[in-house]
Amino acid sequence: MNKLKLQILELLKEDSRIGADLIATMLGAKQAEVEAAIAELEEEKVIVKYATVVNWSKVNDDKVTALIEVQITPERGHGFDAIAERIYLYPEVKSVYLMSGAYDLLVEVEGRTLKEVASFVSNKLSPIDRILSTKTHFILKKYKQDGIIFEDNDEDHRLLISP
Known about the structure:
The structure is a single chain. By secondary structure, this protein is of the alpha+beta class. The protein folds into two domains: 3-43, Arc Repressor Mutant, subunit A, CATH 1.10.10; 58-141, Lrp/AsnC effector binding domain/regulation of amino acid metabolism (RAM) domain (Alpha-Beta Plaits, 2-Layer Sandwich). 33% of the residues lie in helices and 21% in strands. The protein is built from five helices and six strands. The strands form two sheets. Strands 2-3-1-4 form a four-stranded antiparallel β-sheet. It starts with a helix and ends in a 14-residue tail after the last strand.
């Protein structure tokens, strides 16, 4: 991937609403060149979606989010992919990651209540063939997501380190 596309991706990651004209100005490129690069990135599915990071706790949102560690036995010929696909097709599932370490998949699930998430785990996730165990962790509060800090604290509380 060329340098211009990488720079465009970094800028769009910080602000997906930034226009091609401003990107071109910031990078010293032509607007048509930036528009063509963005179109290629979208076509190649490098840019998958433009999204907004929302602090749902400020919207009086009653969603419950859980992270579920899942241990599985990989399927012959398909490895982890076939089981991951079965899991990510459920509408409650927001993310699925293949992990190294003590468990195989990390599944992020959203529901309206703790009971709804627990029901998903016990009635839909756990019964899937080849799932050995699950461990559910409920998210109580988000402090930072996708590089965005949610707290309105302007003070820097980090300790000063000097040589």
